[in-house]
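Exercise 7.
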Amino acid sequence: MTLLYLVRHGETVDNAHHIMQGQTPGQLNENGIRQAEEVADKLKDEAIDAFVSSNLRRSIHTCELIARPHGMPVTTTPLLRERDWGSFTGKYIPELSNLNDPSLWPDDIESLDALKRRAKDFMVWLKEQYPGQKVLAVGHGIINKAIQSVYYNKPMNEIKPMSNAEIRIIEL
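Solution. The predicted structure, written as tokens, is:
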């Protein structure tokens, strides 16, 4: 069994300003750095075998801060990237009035099916790369939700959103 510590990246400048980040690199703000350092402190005595991150900067930075007490490197994978929000990227979230009605979304947004396939591919990859190990993986709000949706075989709307730097443990 592979034990997954699934973590959402720390708060970013864009999170604080309610900007849709999508697959932009993002930058942790001071609060986000503090959140990642708190996770690092909480897990410093855990025997974690590997640290994996989305290849987007906000997740890499969070993962590096968490991995620091362990003196371990961070492996990145595009499988953990946030959902591609297409032309919604960079927009002020409260102004996206169509956000609750996917039938009105532009065609350039990553489909839910594609997102869930990527989530499933991530779990398969993780089990193949790190069999029987404890792995901490830092992703993003929607991809982490998709991973849990696939794992628990529940619709996305039944998965509670993760707050910044929240940890959820999954046995793969």
